[in-house]
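Standup notes
- HV: blocked on the assembly model, inputs below
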Amino acid sequence: MRSLEEKRRLSHPAICARFDDVGRDGASAHLGIMGGTFDPPHFGHLACAEMAAEACGMDGVVFMVAGDPAFKQGQELASAADRLNMCRLATFDNPLFDVSALEAERSGITYTVDTARVLRAHYPACVRLSFIVGADALMTLPDWKDAPDLASLVDIVCVSRPGYLPDAELLARLERIGFAVELVTSPLLDISSSMIRQRVREGRTVRYLVPLSVDEYLISTGLYRAKGGTAHD
Ligand code: ATP
Ligand code: MG
């Protein structure tokens, strides 16, 4: 039987239901935070998180769905509710994964450093926090808001992504800012959300590029489909 307190926490998690209590017993733990717009989530995201978790021995990965990210201003996004739904569908069968609505529910432009502050305040010091980024995102990291503060709160795990190779100059620059960066080599999956949206718009298939549950969600909601167009039939 779950206590009332436990039931309340599971229905209103501060970060996410599965990992809210990590570190409460004082035992060391390592959480990965996989941030993104996930518009929609695809196998590139899932493999990125899985490879990072394996390489670094993480105890869990929190998919942090961005609300209104600073770097995607002027770009039309699917609603936060749709992106959260799709992330939940994409991750539910992996006990190492959970989804957080923390950023998506925050109003206004969302910055990673603010999320890192909330996470660092929530988890005790025995919980190591690593932000997982693809190699394309690593290149933009020096320009993120309050980068030195961010570097003092979390470390970075960078996973390879087709077309992007972190060079020595970038790594030196990140080190000067204070970032601890671990590079993880992963099989390259040349999949992006932009490409998925484009394919759906054109009525083409995205099967085997996104989990089946996400594909079914796209078909049933008509998300990204050109007005007047049909699903990939
Ligand atoms: P969009 O095309 O809309 O920018 P995206 O596929 O780049 O979408 P994001 O939500 O922007 O997805 O990315 C979230 C995180 O996932 C970023 O750190 C990004 O580098 C990483 N990522 C996305 N796709 C891949 C991939 N195929 N391989 C490795 N990392 C990836
Ligand atoms: Mg992107």
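- HV (later): unblocked. The pocket of adenosine-5'-triphosphate (ligand 1) is lined by residues 36-39, 44-45, 48, 133-134, 136-137, 159, 161, 189, 191-194 (CB under 6 Å). The CA atoms of residues 31 and 129 lie 5 Å apart.
- Next: hand off to the docking folks.
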